Amino acid sequence: MTVTGPATLPHMLPDRTDLLLAFVSGVPLLSLSVVVAALSMPDGRAVAAITAAVVAHVALAYRRRRPLLSHTVICAAFAAQAATTGLFMIMPSALVFPMSVYAVTAYGVRWAAPVTGTIGAAVVTWRLSMDESVVAARIEPDRVLVPALLLAVVAAAWSMGMFRRTQLAYVAVVEERARLAVLAERTRIAREMHDVIAHSLSVIVSQAKGGRYAPEHAPAALTAIEETGRHALNDVRGLLGLLRSPAPTGPAPALSDLPALIGGVRAAGLDVRHTERGDPRPLSPAAGLAVYRLVQESLTNVVKHAGAGARAAVELDWADDDLRVRISDDGRGVKDPAGGLGLIGMRERLTAVGGSLATGPGPDGGFAVTALIPARTTRIQP
Q1: Model pTM greater than 0.90?
Q2: How many CB atoms lie under 10 A from the CB of residue 119?
Q3: Burial of 296 (0-12, 13-18, 19+ CB in 10 A)
Q4: Among residues 21, 109, 221, 238, which is most buried (max CB within 10 A)?
Q5: Topology adopted by domain 253-382
Q6: Going along the chain, which residue ranges are E strands?
Q7: Are 294 and 314 in contact, with CB atoms under 8 Å apart?
Q8: pLDDT for 259-313, tens place per residue?
Q9: Where in the chain are the domains?
Q10: Alpha-carbon span 107 to 101, nearest angstrom
């Protein structure tokens, strides 16, 4: 992951921190540069050198918002200084250059600083060596030591910029992972909410319809509606609590809660046959919740789509390596075997725990949902 200035800092104008640092570094450095230029250079060259220094300090304020443009302007300003200052070319404002090297490396592109630093070191060495005042004073600089020192300064600034760039990249990765974790949790809660509300409302509607057409069963229907509504309200409160706090508000449904779920659906008027074969073994909490929601959503679909008088069967078959769960009915089936949000949610849950889901016609002519969940790793070792 690369971190660039414009991507990380979208605003074009410098913020208060940028302006403050530019001001704090600019006042002493620029003041000293003005004094050096005024005392040591002819008026025309002094004005040009001071103007170039002012431009460099102003461009430094944009080092994070527009790092490459800021660095380019600063390089151009120091190129103008190199053309006018002669012996006093390296003024105090030259310290702006390593600051810009750091900024363009940390917030912009990595290649700019090595290129401009190498060119700058060569230009400075050549300019000092060829300057008339330097030659006349017989203080010609060492053509190896000077570029080596300048390149060392550039390398130090570039290294610090790369370190900061790595820090920013790490922070960006952590923030992105946190964002994806929040998104995944919200998706999970939305799926839970769908399962709870869809199941409960289907049972409530079914009971209300039965009480309407069979008044003698109205008290039992109202009791079932009350119980279903109370359970749904508790589940919704728990899910909403997850949105307020990451701490769990209660135990999630598990495989051991299946008999109570099936009993509630039977009380709502659906004939459900529950069979279990093989040697039951504990499942992980995630796998147990996936099986529970699979049965809940499937029975909800039977209530909604199978039609009046339909019967359902819930079969759990424990094999050596996996648990096979099939929920089938003898109703009229569904129009779209691919499934809507409910079946998509089932498939995602099972995939998350290493399982698989298949849907299609049932053995009795209705609709069937079959799932395989790995169970070998869930054995309790003696």
Answers
A1: no
A2: 12
A3: buried
A4: 221
A5: Heat Shock Protein 90 (3.30.565)
A6: 271-277, 311-318, 322-329, 356-361, 367-374
A7: no
A8: 888 888 887 778 889 999 988 888 877 788 888 888 888 888 888 777 777 889 9
A9: 7-141, 253-382
A10: 10
